[in-house]
Amino acid sequence: MNAPQRLIGEHALITGTAGGIGLAATIAFLREGARCTAVDLAPTLSPELQVLQAQYPEHFQYVAADVSRQDSIDAMVAAARARFGTVTTLLNNAAVFSLGPLLEITEKQYDVIFDVNVKGMFFVMQAVLRQMVADGCKGSIINLASQAGRRGEALVAHYCASKAAVISYTQSAALAMAPHGIRVNGIAPGVIDTPMWKDVDAQFAKAEGLQIGEKKKAVGLAVPLGRMGDPADVARAAVFLASAEASYITAQTLNVDGGNVMN
């Protein structure tokens, strides 16, 4: 007997869905019965999202949006509501990455990281929360942080700081929204084998004088469970936090990292 779907009747808005964690989460939420508004920067659907659109025509829509722009955020949330009604779950996943020696990283690098990872995360969350409060929806917000937000790293200062901000905003928003019955949580993935890791590995190779693939292999072996995570590992955690099974959990950031960080 198949397990009952946990998200029937829910409307999930998921950002950063072209690949990796966002794509895996979109698949997981659809399988659990949710209607999904999938968001990414590209004006057209990725091949993987085209497949989902064909499989779930009544439960899936795609919206192109730039989360670093308020007008784009407003249009995105309006489009989500127009198709599927009030957003009941937000998976705030869109993010960018860069690294460099502390004495060399630039203001431009700072602006790009914080515009998406912090400003974009916050104002997407704010827009969805305004809708939830106005509609009396006791929904769920899930912000994607990172194990990098738990500590500093010499070559990844801006990214670490941006993800620490995600954890902090998650806690503050949870306290502010608790009187409305809205839960706000985060997920802090560890090293997850996503398409973005090709670029991350290349950046580390350049900065540390490594061969391509060397950093990726090393970080996987350093995980206590002995491997990099899969995007589906994070997607399953997001489904749990969005479901009624997590109805008494708020203001938490869940580590999904194979044991890299201990609380």
TrEMBL record:
Q: What Pfam family is a match, any one?
A: adh_short_C2
**Alphabetical GO biological process terms:** fatty acid biosynthetic process
Give a GO molecular function annotation for the protein. quinone binding
Per the record's keyword annotation, is Transmembrane helix included, yes or no?
Answer: yes
Q: Which UniProt keywords apply?
A: Membrane, Oxidoreductase, Transmembrane, Transmembrane helix
* Coiled-coil residues: none
Q: What InterPro entries has UniProt attached to this entry?
A: NAD(P)-bd_dom_sf, Sc_DH/Rdtase_CS, SDR_fam
Q: Where is the signal peptide?
A: none
**Where are its TM segments located?**
12-30
Q: Which domain of life is it from?
A: Bacteria
Query: What family is this protein classified in?
Result: Belongs to the short-chain dehydrogenases/reductases (SDR) family.
The name under which this protein is listed is Sorbitol dehydrogenase
Q: Which organism is it from?
A: Rhodoferax koreensis
